[in-house]
């Protein structure tokens, strides 16, 4: 099996797809770094010449005032206390929460690329993994070896997993390395809030707690990896079913973009939450953004994705083992 | 020639979209023989070969390679098989050597030294480290054969191996296939739609038409029945008169006469012509065309 996976990796590398992906990321990161940099400058100008410590101190006083009010709900009080300790940490440790370090940039970068950019990059790698062997005719040589068909497909699937891991890792390394040149490399321990939940129009804060940024980033990269594997598996299935790589890309591209559009307009179409493409934005649950449709949660979205992924995996392997190759 | 068949195909049928494409094909290959699979385009040669190599599953029938059933003992059966189905399609972005390495890695029983052996065998040593996208068709064909020979198979299956090659390439391929069968005791199944090719290469041949084998025989037997002699003689009318008394004749388009090839009687006919004062300018044998052969074995049913 190791030999089979090596073969697949060799072919992937020789097709130069991975290099292209790395180049794309290496090109986009400086672009976003510059955008972020501009935004921070803009904010600074708006605040005038005020020192950020003064602004933060004001916010702390504000929070304290609200806490001392007696009409406040218990739950809200708890949340405010957590926020207060976060703000105090910033002040004590001399961290400007609005001037991000490289870890913060990394975080923002993956949060924004999880639903479209990274799935697209994954798709570019995976789309022709099987279909190119069919359209190039090499599948005839591949499948007339003393190796069972499912093993050959599994080796391709494992090569896909390796490539996805590599892509996610490159995003981490490149976004950290490049943005650090501008923002500095510190900020791993900056405290962040997580554990928000949404019910109806309400933001539930009972489970909110503080985690250091490195933990937060690790969590988000795990989710990104998960999303990429699911998108990869579905692309993989299409690549098995279709001979034409262009058709595979077309279908995946259409679903991903449809997902990005649907997210903004399906709040009243409840059953749309079972589509895989409206469930891609897993990092939103970590940062506590509103969900596109009521009743969605991190667990729900992960489960929906898992069902799609497993179905795709089974369809791919069953068809590939049985199919007539013309 | 040993009696254990290298390849046994029994009663193979295939239905595609409710249409019966292969209608009960059976034949057997013995070790060391080159077996021709002859039929016009669309007869079902490639479809049969795809079933033998396990790319498509038969609707019914059994296939055994070296005694192993392709359906139930796939990996064991494939150990004994090397094949090229239709065109030799390899990875164009890899070098010839990398292609071979790729396929060798898929079978743990192939030692590294085997790569050099097969490269030398097909005579590709000079260009083996170039990318396949720079190869000519003939070189691809040879690389394809090298790839098929990696696992030291007992059976080699080549689907129209001379398709698209130039005359020199075709001759080279023919000689190569004969040498392989002789020196490595390989059984080779070669499909073709050209009788001339099969005739020069094969020991036995199966003729397939519309999905059914209509005849299996040694090449000599088949040809002997249908070989013809073309006469160029002057005056034509006199020659025709004399030959007509001896045998059945046809008139060629370009002022020639055509008779059957009957070796013991030929000198007699010739003598009679000469005695009657006919100048025999040319006497040559002509192989039957595939169409002639089909007409003969099918009793006049047209090919398409
Ligand atoms: N995938 C397919 N679907 C439908 N018909 C097919 C398919 N493949 C082959 N055929 C038909 O089967 C017949 C045999 O084809 P083939 O085996 O390629 O012939 P050959 O190799 O002898 O030229 C042809 O009539 C062809 O139209
Ligand atoms: Mg054919």
Structure in words:
The complex is a heterodimer of chains A (326) and B (304). Chain A has one domain. Chain A has 13 helices and four strands. Chain A has helices spanning 2-14, 17-46, 52-68, 74-92, 102-113, 117-126, 128-136, 139-142, 149-183, 213-241, 245-262, 283-287, 298-322, and strands at residues 191-194, 197-199, 202-204, 209-212. Chain A is elongated, with a radius of gyration of 23 Å. The mean pLDDT of chain B is 86. Helix content of chain B is 36%, strand content 28%. Chain B folds into two domains: 7-218, Rossmann fold (3-Layer(aba) Sandwich), CATH 3.40.50.300; 228-286, 2-Layer Sandwich (Alpha-Beta Plaits), CATH 3.30.70. In chain B, strand 7, helix 6 (167-184) and strand 8 form a beta-alpha-beta unit. Chain B has 304 residues and is α/β, with parallel strands linked by helices. Residues 16-17, 21, 39, 41-47 of chain B line the site of adenosine-5'-diphosphate.
Q: What is the CATH C level class of the largest domain in chain B, in words?
A: Alpha Beta
If helices are DSSP runs of H or I spanning 4 or more residues, what is the number of helices of chain A?
A: 13
Assembly status: heterodimer
Radius of gyration of chain A: 23 Å
Count the helices of chain B. How many? 11
Assigned CATH architecture of the largest domain in chain B: 3-Layer(aba) Sandwich
Order of helices and strands of chain A: HHHHHHHHHEEEEHHHH
Strand order of the largest sheet of chain A: 1-4
User: Mean pLDDT of chain B, rounded to whole units?
Assistant: 86
Query: How large a portion of the residues of chain A is in β-strands, by DSSP E?
Result: under 5%
Mean pLDDT, all residues of chain A: 86
Beta-strand content bin of chain B: 25-35%
Low-pLDDT residue intervals, each spanning 5 or more residues of chain B? none
How many β-strands of chain A, per DSSP? 4
């Amino acid at each position: 099996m190791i030999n089979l996976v090596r073969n697949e990796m060799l072919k992937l590398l020789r097709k130069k797809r991975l290099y292209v992906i790395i180049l794309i990321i290496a090109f986009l990161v400086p672009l976003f770094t510059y955008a972020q940099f501009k935004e921070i400058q803009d904010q600074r100008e708006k605040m005038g010449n005020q020192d950020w410590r003064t602004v933060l101190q004001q916010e702390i006083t504000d929070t304290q005032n609200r806490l001392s009010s007696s009409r406040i709900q218990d739950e809200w009080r708890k949340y405010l206390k957590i926020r207060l300790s976060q703000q105090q940490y910033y002040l004590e440790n001399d961290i400007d929460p609005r001037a991000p370090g490289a870890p913060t940039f990394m975080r923002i970068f993956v949060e924004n690329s999880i639903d479209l950019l990274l799935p697209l990059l994954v798709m570019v790698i995976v789309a022709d993994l099987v279909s190119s062997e069919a359209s190039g005719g090499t599948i005839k040589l591949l499948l007339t070896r003393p190796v069972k068909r499912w093993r050959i497909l599994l080796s391709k699937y494992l090569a896909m997993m390796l490539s996805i891991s590599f892509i996610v890792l490159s995003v981490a390394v490149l976004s950290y390395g490049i943005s650090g040149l501008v923002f500095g490399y510190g900020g791993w321990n900056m405290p962040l809030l997580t554990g928000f939940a949404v019910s109806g129009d309400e933001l539930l804060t009972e489970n909110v707690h503080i985690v250091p940024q490195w933990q937060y980033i690790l969590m988000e990269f795990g989710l990104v990896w998960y999303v990429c594997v699911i998108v990869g598996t579905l692309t993989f299935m299409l690549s098995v079913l279709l001979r034409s790589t262009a058709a595979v890309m077309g279908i995946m591209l259409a679903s991903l973009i449809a997902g990005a559009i649907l997210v903004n307009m399906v709040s009243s179409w409840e059953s749309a939450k079972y589509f895989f493409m409206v469930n891609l934005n897993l990092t939103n649950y970590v940062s506590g953004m509103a969900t596109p449709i009521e009743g969605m949660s991190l667990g729900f979205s992960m489960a929906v994705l898992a069902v799609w992924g497993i179905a795709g995996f089974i369809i791919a392997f069953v068809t590939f083992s049985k199919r007539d190759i013309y | 020639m040993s009696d254990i068949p290298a390849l046994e195909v029994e009663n193979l049928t295939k239905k595609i979209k409710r249409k019966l494409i292969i209608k009960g094909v059976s034949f057997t290959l013995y070790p060391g023989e080159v077996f021709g699979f002859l039929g016009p385009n669309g007869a079902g040669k490639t479809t049969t070969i795809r079933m033998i190599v396990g790319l498509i599953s038969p609707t019914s029938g059994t296939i055994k390679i070296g005694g192993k059933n392709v359906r139930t003992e796939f990996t064991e059966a494939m150990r004994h098989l090397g094949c090229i189905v239709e065109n030799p399609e390899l990875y164009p972005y890899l070098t010839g050597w990398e292609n071979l390495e790729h396929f060798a890695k898929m079978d743990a029983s192939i030692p590294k030294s085997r790569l050099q052996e097969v490269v030398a065998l097909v005579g590709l040593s000079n260009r083996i480290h170039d990318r396949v996208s720079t190869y000519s068709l003939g070189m691809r064909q040879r690389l394809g054969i090298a790839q098929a020979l990696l696992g030291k198979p007992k059976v080699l299956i080549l689907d129209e191996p001379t398709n698209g090659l130039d005359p020199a390439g075709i001759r080279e391929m023919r000689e190569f296939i004969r040498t392989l069968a002789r020196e490595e005791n390989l059984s080779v199944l070669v499909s073709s739609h050209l009788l001339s090719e099969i005739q020069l290469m094969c020991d036995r041949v199966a003729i397939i038409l519309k999905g059914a084998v209509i005849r299996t025989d040694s090449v000599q037997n088949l040809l002997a029945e249908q070989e013809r002699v073309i006469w160029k003689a002057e005056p034509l009318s006199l020659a025709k008169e004399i030959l007509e008394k001896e045998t059945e004749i046809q008139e060629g388009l370009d002022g020639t006469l055509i008779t059957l090839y009957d070796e013991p009687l030929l000198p007699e006919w010739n003598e009679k012509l000469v005695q009657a004062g006919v100048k025999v300018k040319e006497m040559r044998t002509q192989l039957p065309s595939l169409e002639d052969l089909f007409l003969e074995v099918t009793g006049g049913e047209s090919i398409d």
